[in-house]
Amino acid sequence: MRGDVSVVEEHMILGDLELLIMAKHVSQKPFLHEMIVIGGDAKGSKIKQEFVELENGTKVLVDVDLKFKGKMRISVMFGKNNFKQNYDAVLDDFVKLAEN
What is the pTM assigned to this prediction? Predict the structure, then answer.
């Protein structure tokens, strides 16, 4: 980590897929965190989290721009027959990742 920037190798599980990515994390504590995928199946994807202080808590704004390639293609992630079930599982896993 150098200053507010780090580059890390990350393993993620989305649905039935295990993904390996290289990600650049940039933070401006305590207000902003950005992750840019610089290598792997989701290369070019970006996730931006902005933290807004409120009177009674914190509001988290999340902006996601996913680039689907390789294992991340929609047809691979969801299959052809179980679209709704697979889609729900992927979203559930994505929410778990975002919460951690």
Answer: 0.66
